[in-house]
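Entry 14. Two folds queued back to back today. First construct below, sequence then structure tokens.
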Amino acid sequence: MTQAAQPLKMQRSRRNAVWDAIRGRDEAQESPLDETISFGELVWAHHERQEKEVYRGTLNGPLDQEYRRRLKLFKQEHGDIMESYWCRYEASGVALTEMRLPRRLSNFFRRDSVLRLHTATDWRTENAPTVAMWLHRWETAAIKVSEVLRDTSERIALHWIFAASSRLLGFVDRKSSSKASDANLAIVLREQENGIEEVKDYYARAGENSARIVYFRGMIWGTAVLAILVGGSFLLAWAFGWLDPRDEPTYTLFVTIAMGAAGAILSVMTRMARQDGFNLEFEVGRKSMRYLGGLRPWIGALFAFALYLALKSKLVDFIQNVDHGIYFYATAAFLAGFSERRAKVLLDSAAGESDSDTSGGPKKRTK
């Protein structure tokens, strides 16, 4: 590489580093890991250290160093270990980790975290298939919670699941698994049944509330994009002389679009206030929910725009002897956005009238 090209490359790398920092990416500052450690490997290293060194009074031995090396790699990949339970007689355990995400523009003042429940229990539950099945059910519930819930509700649910998993694993963590009588196991499983039903109920309620928040945020972003595109189109048309902002039809059209979007947002907020007025399938994912919310203002604006064209073209005239000024169109647009079904009835009536006109008049009934 020539000396003249080196400063240019350094400048590009510095510019890329600044851009990565703005987007909140740490790839420019961190080197990729040469090795990744699964939780099962960490559990095995912990058990080997405990059995062959710690319980025999040996500290800082080779097994301890290997365990700490794996622990460091595991924490670099998954974050700090918040809670953990390690079995005494077998290489099994559960842990709850928290990975702090870098700051981004969307969460600059509050950093998000990724919480995960890690389990490695096959060694301990080899001769306890019922307990293994219940631990699998708790692990499945933890996956759902981590993917759907956020913030406080996610922490509560995951700590709840961790407590139940460690309680169940601790029950079978005995020197001889035969000591776990069927009567005691039945009591523990009854507690697990009640616990998982409570977690499911909490997950459903928290998931619905979380989905409503995500949906509402999507509506705000969708409204912002709609305002930018419509406002940009208006400014571009004004610059080319295609529109005059002083003309009443021009600003009436844009007021109509805005009122349609506002009606759609108010309709969703009104239904959210009712207990069973607004239900969402929150397990489709937060991204899909956000996109659906972003489309809602567009639907209201498009219905309002279609109704405005139908009124201007005289296809629909449901109120006679009324001055069709800006307030009339704004009210009709708001109602169209607030309830698409009413707007659809008006548009269907317009289509019916046009069909009767093209057929040469209203159709006669046949007996």
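Second construct, same run, same settings:
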Amino acid sequence: MTLLQNCRVVDVRKGLVKEASVAIEGSKIVTLGDSKISDGHSIDLDGAYLLPGLINCHVHLGIVFPFREFDPRESPAVTALRCLRRGMDALQAGVTTVRTVGTAYGADLFLRSMIQKGWVKGPRIVSAGSSISVTGGHGDNLGALLADGPDEFRKKAREELVSGANHLKIYITGGISHREETFDEPQMSLGEMKAVVSVARSKNTYVTAHAGESGPILRAVEAEVRCFEHGYLLDREAARAVRESRGYLCPTLVVTRAPNWMRENRIEEWTIQKALAAGNDHLNSIRTAIREGVKILNGTDIPPGDEDDGGNVTVKEMEHYVDAGLSPLEAIRTSSLNGAELMGIDKEIGVVEPGYQADLIATRGNPLKDIRALRAIFFVMQSGSVIRWDHA
């Protein structure tokens, strides 16, 4: 048994802080309180704030930067190694769970298996396998599977679930990474979207969609797509439709406000300028979604362990949510309760409570007062194993 002592445990359900010790046996939290142990070891966190490990819900572990260097003939083994490096970086940064939304060759599925078998360390992976796009659409030439017409989409969706995907990812509009595309460009028919949703439902899972603008989002809500990525141009009608369908939005705000990171990763200048030009509209769209009560997820599109301008990008995304109108507590929920709920694992992760996985992070400052306190995570535990502990 392991005992974390001298902690200020953040209750992300109620927004409260409680001084307590946290007892961990195996991979799970067993008690919160004034526990003492005679058989095991203790870790004194010296009054640090203890939170659930972060969840990043928009991750491409195998993506190549700059995009123009993607090689469709690359060995899947090389892709898997890139996924491993990104996964290790994420875990060190306190991101203990990732939801992947498209990885070439399904390489994240192989990494997931390796992590589960204990061969390597990495975040918990909830995977879409390979994403699915139309011929010539967003994701083409970046490793997405291609389909045209409801029957082809239905078949590809079934193949991904058979391969081990936990959910399905489609592209319904254009985006930033293709020069000629626009956010309002529809790329899938209603019938194609419904075909993928029907397959997902048959296996008790859901579909998430790359989505830039309100018109295609409204059609996707009609098709019963459950989650939307980006939302660059989102109006009140579309936001309300997502909320009323009990859907989720994963904004990836860092994508339109990280020019330094982009240049460090040799992203083409036209892509950077296209992203920055969308920045104000993107932020205002998320403000609209927040006002309309849409449930927000933390996702970055940028590798979750990367840093930009002095902070981890997963934390920077939460800072942008506070700028958009969420309270620090609500921003923390985007990286805990909300993500776990969407993925159907909210009885396993997302809170610091007995019976839950011991996925934990600690920081010196109180993130309920200043979300930027999460820039200084110094302790990371996943499933009861200490991943990182920067001793004072």
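Quick look at the second one. The longest strand covers residues 41-52. The radius of gyration is 20 Å.
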